[in-house]
């Protein structure tokens, strides 16, 4: 069932263990010195799983992304796929048609420092394309790993200016790099001490602060991710995410980085997609934990945060009452009977809780009944508020009452079970 050729991505290996300690910076205010003071939100898109996409398929994804304020897809692509050139061309064409933007994110799990000529020719092809995302009048390019790739020869060979914001793993190195970078993109979107170490939540901004301090005048592209769990034979762990989506967006509103990249739009393997479960992607085995686990309602939460970030606001504005819930399909202690891999690493650090984000125009009372647990009612304020409840096996029901009247509610789309065939620590996400 499981294809050994796993797509993507999280394979950070350089920085396991302790990092140098240094003082954290005060509030940064680098925006004033930027030419381009607009803020932009990108989303990481796995080109490697959409070998048969048509321009229309691309347009469908782009329209959904545009609808919540995403400006561009970071096109994660491999050097080895026969369809990379064709799909990049389709993506650029689709972007130009619907006034969306894209840029290339070379995945250095596949590319290498010796690929300068091919990277240059691809950049030459697209830097002035109407679908290309420009920052400060230069074509943005990014990577997954590839920290030490030298962008200078690419920049000098291509006429149009290039703005290189590769993924950098060591924040200290990002300040001293002589590889002609213009900024750094962090992949530390989940609680970790570096590498792929798993630590308790909640997420802090310690990595962001290190990057911002070291980057000086270079720009920082901060990662935002809602979740992480993966269950391949070579890659079987969770990061402690739980209410990460709202925690992280609140951090972004406070920090106001120049650029944000959402990880991800369609990386099903690591369970952090916010796009639809598209019909025409290839399956590396991750359908076992992603099919029938929609994440679309995380876009409902993302939209007001993206708008607030772009407006420089510290709190999101809610325009209509909505409720978004998410939870895992089983308590963490349940043994799955047919699974040859065993449970993912890190699950001992998870809580058996279910999560509700209320988006309210006025305060109201939220009542949640999680399976066999007693009903719990809490008063919630206007705005986006995230509340958690002890997980109970069975039907999950939600109700929001204001002035004696139920304004939102219903049963969750999936019952929590106390048995399973295969471990699944992905989240089921729904909304009312
Ligand atoms: C250049 O762009 C065209 C489409 O505009 C595409 O067909 C071709 O594959 C691209 N070549 C490279 C090297 O990217
Ligand atoms: C893409 O199309 C080819 C040719 O029709 C087919 O063999 C392959 O299975 C398709 N891949 C996906 C992911 O649908
Ligand atoms: C659940 O909510 C409580 C109260 O706000 C909070 O202290 C706790 O960290 C939350 N738990 C999780 C796992 O997010």
Automatic annotation (TrEMBL):
One Pfam family linked to the record: Glyco_hydro_71
Domain of life of the organism encoding this protein: Eukaryota
Stored Gene3D superfamilies: Glycosidases
Keyword Signal: yes
InterPro entries named among the record's database cross-references: Glyco_hydro_71
Entry keywords, A to Z: Hydrolase, Signal
Signal peptide, first to last residue: 1-23
Single annotated GO MF: hydrolase activity
Keyword Ribonucleoprotein tagged: no
Name of protein: Glycoside hydrolase
Species this chain originates from: Aspergillus lucknowensis
